[in-house]
């Protein structure tokens, strides 16, 4: 028998194994200064394209003021205890009511964190007789939620409606045997590539199959739809979403999340969401902070307009220069390039050190081998000058990638990695 920690020390995991080469730079980088379009990395100013502060609320003076006032009045703790026991307040209820109205649902329920919250929602919505059908490219929180499920689950190919139909046929046969129901899960916006979930087509399948739909709209909330109610509103099918989920971690620039749907479903979840029932209530700083942010989402449409002006300028600029930005239908802006992991590392270093551009890099196994994905998140705080500088930098790094500069630069890295 071996010691439990032997394996952990030998094998640090798919990401942990890169720690000695990557930590502090490619992973766990320290961005300093106020959250905005320009921050500091290793003491130098960079244009930041990797922060999900879509509407620029993180550092908005009104938001900072509301957060500070709430902190001064309540400290970080109030209210103490779980919502069910002693952590419930009028303002938690008010926020829920306002969120429900904002996304056009009867009711909403607050969650401390999106990740645990959606896991619990999946866990609470199904029993072992029910079947889950979900997009294969789902966020880790959905995958972990599905892992809690004791019954059958099927994945469908990413955004592939034929594959979804096939799996719904299988799920329907199975549900007829078990006597259970079917839960379909999609994201409103897939956060890596920026494609919207094909909610309109999924909802249309309700004519043919009997299922309920849960949508994780982390990136759609506040950014899509005429009022910012998200991908369902954008595609005209908000009513077809049975359980709507969004986090405060992106457009709302905070912590917390919520679920919304019909009153009887939300009432059920309120009494069955284990990660909320047995966890301390969301502190008042975040509740009051979310009320303020939501008010700004409602009353300051110019923030979303500014965001989209920037998104369009960046995405059109990239397309005009012949970059492959895939099939994004949201603010998430991916740029696909061909190259190895060491080349990607050399390229990102060049972008950061010589052009002052800070963006996230995604490589295999998240995307196929040989592809490099540079992922950019435009926000309302970016300027046309930031966009122009970024487009020029991207043109420069593409020619270096193509003329082999990064291959040469990365040879030392590749050798160190044993590639
Ligand atoms: C698609 C998606 N779902 C859920 C979450 C988790 O939300 P939270 O950060 O509130 O835990 C995230 C990340 O924030 C996300 O991108």
UniProtKB/TrEMBL annotation:
Cofactor(s) for this UniProt protein: pyridoxal 5'-phosphate
Pfam families, from UniProt? Aminotran_1_2
- Under which pathway is this protein filed? Lipid metabolism
The Gene Ontology terms for molecular function here are: pyridoxal phosphate binding; transaminase activity
The record's SUPFAM superfamilies line, in alphabetical order, gives: PLP-dependent transferases
Q: Mind telling me which InterPro entries this protein's record contains? A: Aminotrans_II_pyridoxalP_BS (IPR001917), Aminotransferase_I/II_large (IPR004839), AON_synthase_class-II (IPR050087), PyrdxlP-dep_Trfase (IPR015424), PyrdxlP-dep_Trfase_major (IPR015421), PyrdxlP-dep_Trfase_small (IPR015422)
Q: Which residues form the Aminotransferase class I/classII large domain?
A: 45-393
Keywords in alphabetical order: Aminotransferase, Pyridoxal phosphate, Transferase
Instruction: Read off the Gene3D superfamilies from this record.
Output: Aspartate Aminotransferase, domain 1 (3.90.1150.10), Type I PLP-dependent aspartate aminotransferase-like (Major domain) (3.40.640.10)
User: Which PROSITE patterns does the UniProt record give?
Assistant: AA_TRANSFER_CLASS_2
Family listed: Belongs to the class-II pyridoxal-phosphate-dependent aminotransferase family.
What is the name attached to this protein's record? Aminotransferase class I/II-fold pyridoxal phosphate-dependent enzyme
